[in-house]
Amino acid sequence: MLYWAKGNKLLQTLYPNWIWSVRTKEKKIYLSFDDGPHPEITPWVLDQLKAWNAKATFFCIGKNVAAYPEVYQRILLEGHRTGNHTMNHLNGWKSNTADYFNNILEAGKYIDSKLFRPPYGKLTRFQGKALREAGYEIIMWSLLSADFDIRLSPSDCWVLVKKNYRAGSILVFHDSEKAWPRLKEILPMFLEQASSEGYTFEALAMGTAIKNRVE
């Protein structure tokens, strides 16, 4: 399993128009959750966020929204934002541009958002160009919790997260069954520690990264 937990500097250079972090002087962290909604795990996540007055962005899979619309509505009602994560969690590197784009449009019937995160972080240059021309903002990350990695313990993930978050981080967790053994341990610890250090937790909106750039 190959992935980068911290922002990939080469890719950031090659794709500067994709959003990797938010440059800000304020102690804000941009929490995000991928692959939901899940009927049990996502409500648990929402309860954790509510306890710390935290807001987040949920990058949802269209078929999961179709299956659990009430969970999706709760995300919105509680002041969080959502993003498109394709209809079926497609790997962009293994999909032609037309099929990939149509899958995103299908998910768009259920997810009213122009924020997009590619599953696995895998997106070709042509797919990215097509998405940006269609008005999407491509949201990547500066820190991946690796909670989905079944080779890691909760402690492994916690060490990774606590050493690497900072102001403006776009931090990824997963509200999924694969991630659950690690998520249930590290999310409460992270919210408590970062809050004690004076951080607040914000959702991403269209243009957030641009509006918060430091000149």
Low-confidence stretches: none
Mean pLDDT: 94
Distance between the termini: 38 Å
The helix count comes to 9
**Count the strands?**
8
Q: In this structure, how is the largest beta sheet organized?
A: 6 strands, parallel
Structural class: alpha/beta
Helix/strand order? HEHEHHEHEHEEHEHEH
What's the Cα radius of gyration? 16 Å
Share in β-strands:
5-15%
**Percentage of residues in helical conformation:** 25-40%
- Rough outline: globular
What characteristics describe this protein?
13% strand, 9 helices, alpha/beta
Briefly characterize the structure.
Helix content is 39%, strand content 13%.
Commentary on this structure:
This protein is of the alpha/beta class and 215 residues long. The protein has nine helices and eight strands. The strands form two sheets. Strands 1, 2, 3, 6, 7 and 8 form a six-stranded parallel sheet that branches. Strands 4-5 form a two-stranded parallel sheet. Helix 2 runs parallel beside helix 8. It is globular and about 45 Å long. 44% of the residues are buried.
Write the layout of secondary structure elements.
Blueprint: H1 9-14, E1 28-34, H2 41-51, E2 57-60, H3 62-67, H4 69-77, E3 81-84, H5 97-107, E4 115-116, H6 125-133, E5 137-138, E6 143-144, H7 154-164, E7 170-174, H8 180-196, E8 200-202, H9 208-211
Parallel strand pairs: 1-2, 1-7, 1-8, 2-3, 4-5, 6-7
Helix pairs in contact: 2-8, 5-6, 7-8
